[in-house]
Amino acid sequence: MSNGPHGIADIADWNRLLEGRVAVVTGGGDGIGGAISALFAAHGAVVEVAEIDPVRAERISREVTAVGGVIRSHVVDVTIDDDVTRLADAVLGTHGRVDVVVNNVGDYRPLVGFEESTPQTWQRMYDVNLRHVFAVTRAFVGAMIAAGSGNVVNVHSVEGMRGFPRDPVYGAMKAAVAHFTTCLAVDLGRHGIRVNGIGTDLTQTPQVDYLTGYEDVEHLWQSWAPVGRVGWPEDQARVALFLASELSGFVTGHNIPVDGGTKAGGGWLFSPRAGRFVNRSKHL
Ligand SMILES: NC(=O)c1ccc[n+]([C@@H]2O[C@H](COP(=O)([O-])OP(=O)(O)OC[C@H]3O[C@@H](n4cnc5c(N)ncnc54)[C@H](O)[C@@H]3O)[C@@H](O)[C@H]2O)c1
After folding, report:
1. Is 126 a catalytic residue?
2. Strands, DSSP E only, in 104-170?
3. Calpha distance 103→23 (Å, rounded)
4. pTM
5. What is the average pLDDT across 275-281?
6. Keyword Ribosomal protein, does the record have it (predicted)?
7. Rounded CA separation 52/32 (Å)
8. Residue ranges of domains in the chain
9. How far is the centre of ligand 1, averaged over its atoms, from the C-alpha of 211 (Å)?
């Protein structure tokens, strides 16, 4: 090859990796989505938050604006098609384009075993974890294709990347998001659009309270994650920034577990008592 590397986008400012990019973040008012909104804005993105909770929507706008970020919140329910249309009209009507879409909304509740599940719980898992990923992506993909560039980041779960016995229907919905990510990336690659996913686990957010029912919390957290700590929304946001920016310009169709090593560790948990990783142990 002559002329050295080409086709690699310039990074003008490594502290402003999303300068001027229009970024939609669903569920961007709190938890992982909130951290993504804040980090993207700190890196120069114009953040458009889709948030069902008006209090969270207002709060993230206030917090990001207070530190000089550019953000607008839309109070929408992404499981309702008319709301998704309203969101897309507002974003595309204002900017005429969208550069990044982060599909982050999802929920494991109500957590039911398969034998207790019903058509109603299946529908709920579908609506809150999968259907809106199709709807929101579909609403913005035309503008990305027209622009010849774009970036989609889907936040799903490690439970979609391994066996999840507690709620197989939830696991199946997350796996569907992960595989939609892979398929769409191939479909859209020649349009300059990259699509990647994040397999989240063990991250402390309003939705997840690992404290409930456990007395010796530190002991358990150290045991659950090979890295020896719980995850935070900021851990997820940093990977979302990597995927949404030119740092990952040659990465598409992949799902990255952001889990402190839980997927890699499989059935191995750290035993403070034994001072080593163990499996098939009666006592941690
Ligand atoms: N926290 C974890 O450890 C963990 C583990 C696995 C997967 N995940 C996934 O990560 C994503 C984010 O989870 P989180 O823990 O930050 O959740 P969270 O509940 O703490 O935050 C979700 C945000 O989305 C908003 N929201 C909920 N439903 C909405 C809707 N229909 N329309 C618009 N906004 C809506 C909520 O108000 C909230 O601000 C989800 O897809 C979740 O399934 C999280």
Report:
1. no
2. 150-155
3. 11
4. 0.95
5. 79
6. no
7. 15
8. 8-217+226-266
9. 18
Question: What are the start-end ranges of the E strands in the chain?
Answer: 22-26, 46-51, 70-75, 100-103, 150-155, 193-200, 255-258, 269-271, 276-278
pLDDT tens sequence across 33-73: 999 999 999 999 999 999 999 999 999 999 999 999 999 99
How far is Cα 205 from Cα 257, in angstroms, rounded to an integer? 17
**pLDDT score for 264:** 95
DSSP string, 158-212: GGGSS--SS-HHHHHHHHHHHHHHHHHHHHHGGGTEEEEEEEE-SB-BTTB-TTT
Residue 81's pLDDT band, with cuts at 50, 70 and 90, is very high
Separation CA 171–CA 200 (nearest Å): 12
**Are 260 and 222 a contacting pair, CB within 8 Å?**
no
User: What rounded mean pLDDT belongs to the chain?
Assistant: 94
Give the separation between CA 252 and CA 274, rounded to whole angstroms: 41
Find out if CATH 1.10.10.10 is the number for domain 8-217+226-266: no
